[in-house]
Amino acid sequence: PETPYCAAYTCMTFEQASCFCTGEAGTATPSCSSPSALAGLCVGEGSSCATKACCDGLSCIDVGSSKGCVHECTDDSECSTGCCTDRFDIGVPICSDLEDCTNPCKKRGEACTPGSSTTPNDCCRGACVESDNPDFAGCRPTCTTDEDCPETGCCVPFSNSTTGFCADALYCSCTPAAQPCGPDLPTCCEGTICAGQSADTLTCRTLCDDDSDCAPAACRPLADDSAKICDETCSALGASCGSTLPCCSGLTCAGSDPDFNCHLSCATDDDCASGYCTLFDSGAGACLDDAASP
User: What would you measure as the largest C-alpha separation in the chain, in angstroms?
Assistant: First the structure.
């Protein structure tokens, strides 16, 4: 009794059978856009268009995790529900339930409320990400590969997960030397390491083996001796100084204008392999190759 109509060898309700109608009955049934829908030649509103084309008057939109047939619109008056909105936050307004206009979902980057096993989050699509990094926090489209994020081409994985969320393209590239780094930033480029005196001073520092890799800066070991990095704040032994960088600790800038270089600091001749410690009026001393004037 519930399906008294027969069409395409299938028992149907009045609404389902109306899909065959080219007149008023067919157009009054939103789920069936044309007779072709019932025949299986196209799919109606709300159906997946991953393998079949949408029927006339409908558009196939891709929201990353799925593709569906929708009725695009520009004004509420074009929709039987009276609601035309960008329901999936992809820049395409579509006819949606009235609730989607009176209580709109949150767009990308907006503050959101995480969902639970029984309650979805309030994002238009994707996940509600909780992070101290403002570029991560808020509603973000979910993804499994970079290709799932056509706007940025960057999928940042969640911790201990095979899925992630779409983020700015810079987070899928490495951080160059001298730029800030940290847990929520891209890894340092090859040949550099993230180091600093505190979490606020972390930067990508160039790895080195000796001073020649950093000239005129010095190559200095990290506190835990796990690696050596270029210290761009001071000049190494033998490097120029004065008008450029100051000499590193244990070194003194000495020479004749315009050639000033960093030499080992000293107090007496015994401190120098050359046997000559030149003392300056400032009280500092430098190991020179001979008893040259400062």
Answer: 115
Would you say 19 and 32 are in contact if contact means Cβ atoms under 8 Å apart? yes
At 22 the pLDDT is 63
- What one-letter code names the amino acid at 113? T
What's the predicted TM-score (pTM) here? 0.52
Residue 135 has which token pair?
A: 């570029």
- What is the spatial distance between Cα 139 and Cα 112, in angstroms, rounded to a whole number? 6
Contact in structure between 6 and 13 (CB atoms under 8 Å):
no
DSSP H helices, 89-237, are 99-102
**Residue 81 pLDDT > 80:** yes
CA distance 201 to 281: 37
Report the pLDDT averaged over residues 39-61. Answer: 82
Per DSSP, the three-state class of 175 is strand
Which residues, at least 6 apart from 235, have a Cβ–Cβ distance to it below 8 Å? 216, 217, 218, 241, 244, 245, 246, 247, 248, 251, 253, 262
200-229 mean pLDDT: 88
Give the pLDDT confidence score for residue 66 in this predicted structure.
81
Work out whether strand 10-12 and strand 5-7 pair parallel, antiparallel, or are unpaired: antiparallel
User: Cβ(267)–Cβ(280) under 8 Å?
Assistant: no
CA distances from 77 to 32, 34, 73, 80, 276 (A): 20, 22, 9, 8, 93
Bridge partners, residue 193, by sequence:
205
In sequence order, the 6+-apart residues with CB closer than 8 A to the CB of 165 are 126, 127, 129, 136, 140, 141, 142, 143, 155, 156, 158
What is the Cα–Cα distance from 47 to 185, expressed in whole angstroms?
Answer: 39
3-state helix, strand and coil shares in percent for the chain, rounded to the nearest 5: 15, 30, 60
Label residues 227-251 b or e (16+ Cβ within 10 Å = b).
ebbbbbebbbeebbbbeebebbeeb
Rg of the chain in Å (alpha carbons) = 34
